[in-house]
Amino acid sequence: MNAPARIATVSEAWFPKLPDELERAVDAYDLPSTKDWQPLADLSAATEFEGIEVFGEHAVISDGSFVAPADVYVTLIYEPNTDDRVEFPDSYPARVFFLVTSERVTIDRIEVDTRSFYE
How far apart are CA 68 and CA 8, in angstroms? Predict the structure, then answer.
């Protein structure tokens, strides 16, 4: 059974600039070049990354890991090499898993929830 999530600010690893450092780490994380991108790539013929917004002030500790909610913004492109090219802007909720060591934030992975696309 999973341990209940608790607010990350109760952790000894928490520091006041953590949300800012998390945002910097997410900005530096090249999501489209990771295996984390695959669920989004599967949504269209040519999914384009537009950005990610992470909410570090809402980070929790779950099963010993830091986790923060985020939104990932993409453009879904269908028939990309034709005159019938169709583009749709879209966004999906995500969870950013990260580590904190000596006030340094490192992204472990980003899990994007694409279930809404299929509903």
Answer: 9
| Token output for 58 | 């809402």
The pLDDT of residue 40 is 98
Contact yes or no for 24/105 (Cβ under 8 A): yes
Residue 48 CB: number of other CB atoms within 10 A?
15
Q: What is the pTM of this model?
A: 0.88
CA distances from 42 to 34, 47, 55 (A): 14, 8, 25
Alpha carbons 12 and 31: distance in angstroms, whole number: 28
Coil, strand or helix at 119: coil
Query: What is the structure's pLDDT at 76?
Result: 97
DSSP letters, 35-85, are: GGGHHHHTTSSS-EEEEEEE-GGG-EEETTEEEEEEEEEEEEEESTTSTT-
